[in-house]
Design a protein that fits this description.
homodimer; FAD/NAD(P)-binding domain; 2 domains; about 30% helix
Chain lengths: ~500, ~500
């Protein structure tokens, strides 16, 4: 039968073009872990015996390019990969998602101002070598252990509950390791946050928020739902008054004022947005801009409440003064901290539990390990302050480290344990370029000063919004997405936001 | 506190603008059904006591417009709603999805040629009255029972496992009822199809296929995966050689030849598409076109296998001759049949278990009930053949029925039990406009003859592909989606297909 001939033909075919993968497990059954692992809940695991036997990518040989392994695909990791010279290095990226999220525009996708795909850049578009070079790879997996002495990491594939194959462990040897695993939302130990609140850091978070919002809009219109229940369902509560919380509140109020009024006329009078913040909103901006933001948000119908969340239940949150706030949608954006995996790593630590690095972003006490982005911070011994968990910090670090590794790679010191005599050059210095935040209704804040007391441009209003959009559209990585962000903005203006619940 | 003032203010506010909803359940706890109901598994349920008490939309009063209730939001239901005169009628649509799927373009979304949202039209865009008129509604719910004698339907909200509110039952009284609930994929009682295969009828099916395909492409690249396993993971099997199966196979081979070769170079030689069909592929087209399609598909690397599937396991299917076919992705498109809910309805039936209708698409033996689209068929007594389950049949029936109801509505016979003396006019006559199918590589078949023996245009090749695209882009309902389909086609040509796994 043709089918069988095909199978046997394929089986006999030599597949010699991937010489570096060893297959000692070919005949072993795969691991039988059916649960879904995410990097947020993982802690570093001791290397198990069978993985020490070498299934995976072996150490590079002298006739091969040195291999840089990058853990993570956020701002830091992707900017690093983009900058790395692939004539010198092979790149292996290990991450549970195959794209980078353009986070400053993520809030816009929750209500349909932008399409989800417009803010996601596949890693292969950022660094094409990863999908083309025979020695470069992208692995859809979580890193579950680092053995810095053996120069290898242990990984486990994610299977995302689609049971086409069981989770699979493998190791990857590296010449240089770049840990860029980011951070996770802080819940401050408050009960119920993880179970009931939505975060806003990944595309699937934005998708979840959108689905919940549209579901609540439709369910609140059903006969027999009490007025009280309608109000609860349509009460959107945002906890955390940083740029993410404020931008999301602004987008939400735009959606309500333009699209809900037009397309959910039956329930439009019941929908409300409340922003809860323990201190000041947008504390990184100066008083004048903050007052402007407060005024504009209030005008748009966003209720600003000062309070501390004590407890989160399925349909209400409880503040520390005992007030109960019923909600239909709860978005949590109170800042970030290191993940349990980062905390559990046996590496030097910076204050706050991040991986500690020196001025050149190296992790001391181990060879060839670097850490960039939200998961790392300067060691106390450097005398430097920990930098804020911002995209621009992560991006600058990625760019810097790529330049450093390119430089030492050119001297032939790209291989493991070979950089001892190499000059690393200038240490990393962060220069803050300023902050921006939209607040809805075509208004934004732009503060281009290095700090609140510094000199420079600090604007609020429509012109700032224009600067905000112009700045971000030029920052979008690929021409494809730049085109789509523009097209999405135009169609939102012309046709309104789409309300299909897909 | 401001928060409490807000709550009490809202509670005191009169909400008198929705006079038709009665709320006898305001103080009752909601129903405690936590399981997720879908229309596919529902069967009609007897009306329970409490819903007889009248929670929901009561019968219309003489000073109100008559109410047409539409069950379903597919081609038939949506075309009907679009055509209905909302100056005469109020419309209530009950459906578990708030959009219509432009099914002929759905296969293109699985591989990213088109974006999912480009093929989904929100019902409010098709019939704006549904979101604006005070007496018209869209309810995100499944119909779980029809009481044709009392002129009411019973519904239950879907909650989609987002537990913001428990499923909720309510009734809707109608003056006219239009059952347009569509069909469901036929599995012919084969074990394992529902568990392991993906269908291709809804946007979430296409999303699932895309996620699986990209997952398999990435997992197959992981070190330690055997060659055999790689081949299995990257073996895409399509069962059913109708237009859907062929178009999906064509799209898949385009994706492989253009995008996988470029972006998954490590595994590009392992990916295969097999199309399994028990008889001829594209049996509705004539021999010449079919031969052309077979040749083109084979050229594109699609393996055509004639066989009957006997059993479906998690990672392989078994054909009736005992051949085992391992797969990583299995798409099932072997035709459709009536859902258990349709079968369980106590209404006259047409051959095959569909709801039986007369020449005017009325369900005899009950007053004011009509049925259109895949869920209905002509009664044997009409002497007419059951029409094929095609979008164009459903659409033409929707259009016809809207005209009929508009006509009788103008004579004042739109209310319940008032049409006895009304002339319905010409019966429904279906005229087949022809068939089209893409087969990949910018090739398509176009057969504009009424039947295989008739006269007219029957073409295959690039010009047909041009006709195919031109025809469908003009059929897309809204200007927004027409624009996006065009833009998607252009960017696919320029930038290739997006491979972010969102």
């Amino acid at each position: 039968m043709a089918w069988l001939r095909y199978l046997s033909k394929l089986t006999n075919k030599k597949t010699s073009h991937r010489p570096k993968i060893t297959d000692p497990f070919l005949l072993l059954p795969p691991f039988n872990f059916l649960s879904h692992f995410s990097s947020n809940t993982n802690v570093a695991k001791p290397f198990t015996n069978h993985t020490n036997s070498g299934s995976g990518l072996e150490p590079t040989k002298p006739n091969e390019k040195p291999r840089v392994v990058v853990l993570g695909s956020g701002w830091a990791g992707c900017r690093f990969m983009k900058g790395l010279d692939t004539n010198i290095y092979d790149i292996v990226c290990v991450s549970p998602r195959n794209h980078m999220v353009f986070t400053p525009l993520l809030a816009s996708t929750c209500v349909g101002t932008l399409e989800f795909r417009s803010v996601a850049e596949p890693i292969g578009r950022i660094q094409p070598a990863i999908s083309r070079e025979p020695g470069s790879y992208f692995f859809l997996a979580n890193c579950i252990g680092i053995d810095a002495h053996k120069h290898m990491v242990q990984c486990e594939t994610i299977t995302d509950e689609v049971q086409t194959i069981d989770p699979w462990r493998f190791t990857v040897s590296y010449d240089k390791l770049v840990i860029a695993l980011g951070s996770q939302p802080s819940t401050f130990g408050i009960q119920g946050v993880k179970e009931h609140a939505s975060f806003l850091r990944e595309v699937h978070h934005a998708q979840e928020i959108r689905r919940k919002l549209l579901l609540n809009l439709m369910l609140s219109d059903v006969p027999g739902i009490s007025v009280e229940e309608k109000k609860r369902l349509l009460h959107c509560v945002v906890v955390g008054g940083g740029p993410t919380g404020v931008e999301f509140s602004g987008e939400l109020s735009d959606f309500i004022m333009k699209d809900v009024r037009l397309r959910y006329t039956h329930v439009k009078d019941y929908i409300r947005v409340t922003l809860i913040e323990a201190n000041e909103i947008l504390s990184s901006f100066d008083d004048r801009l903050r007052r402007y933001a407060t005024k504009q948000l209030t005008k748009s119908g966003v209720r600003l409440v000062r309070g501390i969340v004590k407890d989160v239940k399925a349909q209400k949150i409880i503040l520390d003064d005992g007030t109960e706030v019923p909600y239909g949608l709860l978005v949590w954006s109170t800042g970030v901290g290191p993940s349990p995996f980062i905390q559990s790593l046996d590496l030097p630590k910076a204050p706050g539990g991040r991986i500690g690095v020196d001025e050149w972003l190296r992790v001391p006490s181990v060879q060839d390990v670097f850490s960039i982005g939200d998961c790392s911070g300067f060691l106390e011994s450097t005398g430097r302050q920990t930098l804020p968990a911002l995209a621009q910090v992560a991006e600058r670090q990625g760019k810097y480290l790529a330049q450093v590794l390119n430089k030492i790679g050119k001297t032939g010191a790209g291989y493991a344990n070979s950089e001892k005599e190499v000059e690393f050059g200038e240490p990393f210095v962060y220069k803050h370029l300023g902050s921006m935040a939209t607040i809805g209704r075509y208004k934004a804040l732009v503060d281009l000063r290095q700090n609140k007391e510094g000199k420079g441009l600090a604007l609020a209003g429509f012109f700032s919004f224009f600067i905000w959009r112009s700045a971000y559209i030029t920052r979008v990585v690929s021409w494809r997405n730049r085109f789509y962000v523009f097209i999405n903005w135009v169609t939102t203006l012309v046709f309104g936001r789409d309300i299909s619940r897909l």
